[in-house]
Amino acid sequence: MSSLTPPERLARDLDWNLLRTFLVLADSRSVTEAAERLSLKQPTVSSALKRLEERLGKQLINRKPGRFELTAAGRLLHDEAIDIHSAILRLGTAIRDVEDEVSGHVRIVMASHVISPLFDQTLTQFHKDHPRATLSIEAMASRSALTAVAARRASLAICLVMERSPQLEYRRLFREFFGLFCGPTHPLYGREGISIADLAGHSSVSFVTDQMDDALRPVAQMRAEAQLEARIVGTSPNLEEVRRMIIAGLGIGPLPLHVVREDVERGRLWRLPPYEAPPAIDVHVVWNPHAKPNRAEIAMLTGLTDLISRTPMEQRIYS
């Protein structure tokens, strides 16, 4: 009997749990953070990474003081491991009653007015492939969406994330950038050449999550740097209502640049400083791996995460 080739030996001996641990490490800022997300002790996670690196004969993560990033080999493994993870999810769908058509209900909770071609494409393909399955989509504050997923009241969430729970799984869907805007009746509307200092003392409106300890912390920091009036005149968890208050002249407020581009072009909104380095916010897909999903939920999550893994990050950045 001929001996196994190195690739065949690797396929036989490699432990999937090591790859799953590596995926969490690759999406974390430290071994400690990864251990918390996996509900494991730090030495256990460090040992898993060491075993994987020894098995592959390559360093996968640069771990030096103040530095924690994937090496070239680590980036390659990350891409391949995502494909393997997606294949396993698809397998779970394929082996469940393979002769039956997929049915069931998918409840999606999400931050308001999420604009994502990837998500829209997933909905189109999901309905085409599984016409008997049903969907419901409910907009709510990101914190409430995460609570619903953790409590297994929702299939998945698409929302902002401040702190990650080790009980949930996360996949970044896209990154968006925020700016400050005012409406046509505001005294700063239409003014060119103003600086951020000109915003000081003006009234403001914003999202309920626009706080230093919540998901829109970078936006809260931007408002603080603009020295807007500390008292927020109006708040809402819904982007459309924040936009409404800004257009109505209640105050200056933050909005995603790509979402309101048409409003700016049509003169309904006027962008204000800062123009450079606008705060970036990541929108994530979040699900509960401890839930018992129906076939429709598995199909939806598999389709969305697979599309994310096949779409380069630069195509998922909206400014």
TrEMBL record:
SUPFAM superfamilies reported in the protein's UniProt record: Periplasmic binding protein-like II, Winged helix' DNA-binding domain
Keyword DNA-binding part of the UniProt annotation: yes
Domain HTH lysR-type: 14-71
InterPro entries: LysR_HTH_N, LysR_subst-bd, WH-like_DNA-bd_sf, WH_DNA-bd_sf
Top-level division of the source organism's lineage: Bacteria
Gene3D superfamilies: Periplasmic binding protein-like II (3.40.190.10), Winged helix-like DNA-binding domain superfamily/Winged helix DNA-binding domain (1.10.10.10)
One Pfam family per UniProt: HTH_1
Keywords: DNA-binding, Transcription, Transcription regulation
Molecular function, one GO term: DNA-binding transcription factor activity
Family: Belongs to the LysR transcriptional regulatory family.
Protein name: DNA-binding transcriptional LysR family regulator
Organism: Hoeflea halophila
Native organism taxonomy: Bacteria, Pseudomonadati, Pseudomonadota, Alphaproteobacteria, Hyphomicrobiales
